[in-house]
Amino acid sequence: MSESYHYIRWFNELTINDIPLVGGKNASLGEMYRELAGEGVIVPNGFAITAEAYRYMLDQAGAWPRLHELLDQVDAEDVNDLAYRAQQARDLVYAAPLPADLQAEIHRAFARLQQQYGNDLSVAVRSSATAEDLPTASFAGQQDTYLNIRGGQALMDACKRCFASLFTDRAIHYRLDQGFDHFKIALSIGVMKMVRSDLAASGVMFSLDTESGFKDAVFITGAYGLGENVVQGAVDPDEFYVHKPTFAQGYRAVLRRTLGAKKIKMIYSDGRTREPIRNVATANEERRLFCISDAEVLQLADYAIKIERHYGRPMDMEWAKDGLDGQLYIVQARPETVASQRSGNVLEQYLVKQGGEVLVRGHAVGSKIAVGAARVIDNVSKLSTFKPGEVLVADMTTPDWEPVMKTAAAIVTNRGGRTCHAAIIARELGVPAVIGCENATATIVSGSDVTVSCAEGDAGKVYRGRVDFEVIRTDLSQMQRPKTKIMLNLGNPELAFKHSFLPNDGVGLARMEFIITEYIKAHPLALIHPERVEDADELERLELLTEGYAKPEDFFIQRLAEGVGTLGAAFYPKPVVVRMSDFKTNEYATLLGGRWFEREEANPMIGFRGASRYVHPAYAEGFALECAAMKRVREQMGLTNVVLMIPFCRRIGEAEKVLEAMARHGLKRGDNGLEIYVMCEIPNNVILIDEFSRLFDGFSIGSNDLTQLTLGVDRDSEIVANDFDERDPGVKTMIRMAVEGARRNGRHSGLCGQAPSDYPEMAEYLVEIGIDSMSLNPDTVLQTTRRVLELERRLGR
Q1: Does domain 479-792 sit in CATH 3.20.20.60?
Q2: Which residues are part of the catalytic machinery?
Q3: CATH fit for domain 2-194, picks 3.30.1490.100, 3.90.1150.150, 3.40.50.40, 3.30.1490.20
């Protein structure tokens, strides 16, 4: 087959070792086409025009001396001179004729591809530089791609444009930055079947989490239409996570999903314009739905895992769904070059000391904070006004902007998702970026000081003015683990992957309330009984929340399961102790629709809360939904490391009723390894600890409530606030009795209150009495761990 071609190699003839011949992109496509088809990974067929063809064309045209004249003296910092020389170089290459024998080979290869896919075949023409997609330099979008090319003259023209794109401003600048020689790099072209994602969807996926570097998840983004919008960041895509360890055990569940705005989609033109593709607005009903099904998300995750396993390293992949044959294709795979290169030993924590007025919000890229004067650039022609150290604010960025992005303190855009061009480059540069803010260019004033924070979860914030923050750096390689288990208090799933890198023994308290407030927003009974909500506005908001779900209850179950599942996955296989909901009546009433289901109480702190709600007719249906979500986490997602915990359980009889109800809902203690803990926060829990030990696997001491009820102090009341102190001798005695009682019964004892995070001496007391674990706020883990190690040494443990 290869005998008849001099300048062409088919994908099935290429391997990853052919980068010098056909560049990284084509070598990778060939490798996957050959090696992974047998594992079910589908790659469109095609052929590569070799880098030798590029050299042959320029040899024949005698173009080299003039190219050297243009490029040997180029000054990367003189933007105007660079632009002039780059344009001259592109014109020179584009003007070089394709030699007749090369043209003949391309026509012949295209005809053979038509035999495989049919005469109406259109192709994607992709550039593949011989130094592209190397493990340490991403070259993201440095050269051009031409889509929906239909053979003949259009194909020849696209090939010449591809060759010329080796000399775009950004490509020249990038090579100078990276120390690559312009004349040692050549360009190969990939010609492959065009996947008809204009009729379906496409996107980008990574075999790790791009923000945190967490390696146990596949991160998938997607939107309707051709993939360029997702890659460039012109659209806010849907996002999905799949957990790799449980997937490998045969569980099939989407871990977490976020609906993107997907306001535009790129489709083929109708032939009335010279451009073969164009953007159109997405229909409203399309925007409200995810662009691919769960089954398709899981198939893509399967591809990603197989590709990562084949290459032996984290990968960055582009996928496309063909609207005609319904198949999912991989159209590109390259090594992920940022998160996977980070050193895991030094932990950097950025902390906002005091917030301020938030001007705009979007997706956080990275986890840093930066301060600088904002520079709003609404047109490429204004790039020269940008000064190093400013915060770049733009609608979106393209590879042409990279010379300026390299000098920015931070980047803020109106459009784009976390895998768009601006996000990829920001990660590569190590600068914080807030992407997809919608109104950044309109809201932020050029020249004004702003603080860009990516240190507060998935949501990035841009604050007005200079906000005070600190950076803590810790070398984890030297840190030992204490005998006392150090766990985390965590409620926010968005921070889970990032916090999993802290030295920890799991999560001692995952609060369900945060997930309900942030991701569900509605009272569970308002979802089950909308007929009891007597406010039209509230009803409309409830309907809007649950749009796209068969039943409103399904929305509650899925959202809660995905929030808890993310916490479980981040720390898997370490234990994650999830406390069932512990809102007070006044807090439940503030949820959407809540006021129609909650009565007013004089003292909600010791009122209708915790275990008493679960078995009471006034809330039992809501508890059933919580149980359904936890059953999904453990049984469908396979996260059996999730331990469930019952809060504010006053009496033995109440405990028995709650456990019976849980068993009825499919959560029977002991089944499938299920452990159920109880909060030890009422004096009766301590007094009757032997009896409670018969029913539960462990105790988590809630020092806040235990202090309130031991000292008789309402912790919500300001007037007696001074009397609230966890270090009171009476409270410490209660805690000691609880720890001793748990040990006597062979049960786990932990403490998850605020005390050890706030008071070093409390942490020391807990170690002295031999508690099994303490659960801390993430920002106090490192210093408390050091203190515990020191104390254990002194105690000779």
Answers
A1: yes
A2: 421, 752
A3: 3.30.1490.20
